[in-house]
């Protein structure tokens, strides 16, 4: 089971010295919502839960959150910079999750579908939902919500309407210690957030290129203005998706849902 003291002890053993508040809950509507409503007392506040009754995904979707199986994690973080300096943040979060999984759990072959779906064998392993709380005097307050399918079996999570899901259990055939995973995630996120603030997204592009699921593939992107089709050509230094259309024109996209054609 998730345990606050265990996570704190593991963080100490990983030499994590940043002050933070940690809330470990049994059940909650949404860990993102909890952090939105909670009066903040620290620059870094974290909430994780055994289950969510109204887990939120991107595009208003529901995030299935069965009890004591997976990770439902949110971090509220006050960045010492303006929002413009955080271009590429959602990509950085996905990269942090993949790096952490590869370093500690040896899970190869995971890729990232721009902007932030973790994919293994064409199935979704994890997703991220970022919500802006506010900006003030060149600080930016954000909530980063992360759902990782850990010990559920992917087929339990896949509904008929959605893209197929998978879990770390499907990949490793091992039950994974979620307290350890959360501690490692906190360390990696904090490290990569600092790198983003000081060096920008350009310093992550190499990592991105090695994990880009869409690269060179024909894709369609749904946007408020319509559907754009073309070839995915990686990302630029602001984390925008480069798409070359049939007339050879390059488009730079900041948002939208991508699918393979
Ligand atoms: C997606 O659609 O891919 C994003 C899913 C994000 C789910 C996580 S689980 C923890 C946090 N709390 C929420 O309500 N959503 C995010």
Textual characterization of the structure:
- With 261 residues, the chain is α+β, with helices and mostly antiparallel strands.
- Helices cover 28% and strands 33% of the residues.
- It contains 7 helices and 12 strands.
- The chain has helices at residues 4-13, 31-37, 89-105, 154-157, 168-172, 178-199, 205-211; strands at 21-28, 44-52, 71-79, 111-113, 117-120, 123-136, 139-148, 218-223, 226-235, 241-244, 250-253, 257-260.
- It is globular, with a radius of gyration of 18 Å.
- It starts with a helix and ends with a strand.
- The model has no long low-confidence stretch (mean pLDDT 93).
- Residues 30-32, 52, 55-58, 61, 63, 72-74, 117, 127-129, 145-147 line the site of biotin.
């Amino acid at each position: 089971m998730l345990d606050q003291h265990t996570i704190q002890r593991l963080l100490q053993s990983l030499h994590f010295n940043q002050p933070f508040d940690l809330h470990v809950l049994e059940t909650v509507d949404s860990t993102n919502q909890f952090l939105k409503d909670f009066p903040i007392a620290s620059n870094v506040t974290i909430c994780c839960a055994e289950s969510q009754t109204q887990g939120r995904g991107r595009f208003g979707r529901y995030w299935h959150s069965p009890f004591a199986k997976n990770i439902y994690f949110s971090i509220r973080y006050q960045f010492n910079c303006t929002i413009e300096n955080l271009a590429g943040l959602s990509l950085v979060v996905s990269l942090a999750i993949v790096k952490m999984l590869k370093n500690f759990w040896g899970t190869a072959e995971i890729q990232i579908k721009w902007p932030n779906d973790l994919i293994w064998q064409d199935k979704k392993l994890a997703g991220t939902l970022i919500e802006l709380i506010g900006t003030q005097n060149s600080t930016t307050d954000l909530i980063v919500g992360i759902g990782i399918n850990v010990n559920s079996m992917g087929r339990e999570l896949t509904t008929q309407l959605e893209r197929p899901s998978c879990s770390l259990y499907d990949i490793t055939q091992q039950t994974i210690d979620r307290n350890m995973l959360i501690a490692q995630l906190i360390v990696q996120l904090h490290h990569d957030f600092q790198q983003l603030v000081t060096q920008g997204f350009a310093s992550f592009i190499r990592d991105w290129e090695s994990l880009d699921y869409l690269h060179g593939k024909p894709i369609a992107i749904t946007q408020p203005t319509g559907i754009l089709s073309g070839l995915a050509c990686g990302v630029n230094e602001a984390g925008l998706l480069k798409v070359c259309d049939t007339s050879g024109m390059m488009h730079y996209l900041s948002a939208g849902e991508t699918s393979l054609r």
